[in-house]
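JOB MANIFEST
job_type = single_chain_structure
chain_count = 1
residues = 233
[input]
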Amino acid sequence: MNALVIYDKAGNVWNITYGDSVMPTGLSAAMVDVPSNVQLTGVEVNSDGSITPKYESMPLSDWQAIQKAIDDAKQSTIAEINEQFNPTIDYDKCSLEDLKSYKIEESKANLASYLESHPLKSTCHGKKEGTYTITEEKRNMFTSKFTAHMFLETAGIEDVMTWNESGQACEIWTNEECLQLIKEWNAISTALVKKQQDVELAIKACKTKEDVKKIEVIYSDADPRGVTDVILS
């Protein structure tokens, strides 16, 4: 088992942290491998600055308790991270308002996932079909870049607008091509955002948790491209 040991020049151990840890700065510290059924009691500081750990035997039950505590801490951390990125809710115990808030946030997350998994296919650049990511992040990035480009041109400063389709290198784009891309993605995003807003209003109007649970979100129904997709509920 790995352990982070903080010690002084005399070899006294001031702190031991079992498991993977971040090495502190400004302190005498080292990562050591602690064998099973022993405890670290001190270190011998060698002339070259390295250390030799000192161990004493430990009852198996004590060692198992330490190992269990470390495993429990790891599982707790994994659970917290998973909850952060994949939040869940206890339908039976939550309040109606909590369920509404959860379903509204879920509808927004599902919209983001839908946009990411359904890129735009367009011939806006060079009259050849390309695939373009139209997530909110990408749209904001493109809009910011194009706005800056137009500002520089208006100010009489020479500038070249570049962009790329998914997985390809950047190429020079004309202003007309940029505007066409914006027009095409705007038609899609506007329709889908309205769908999410309609769903949000429907959720807020629900009188019971069962009513909330019945609401289904099918973003493909609102996609002007006529995409066939699964139900997101």
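[summary]
The CA atoms of residues 43 and 53 lie 4 Å apart.
The first strand starts at residue 2 and ends at 7.
exit_status = 0
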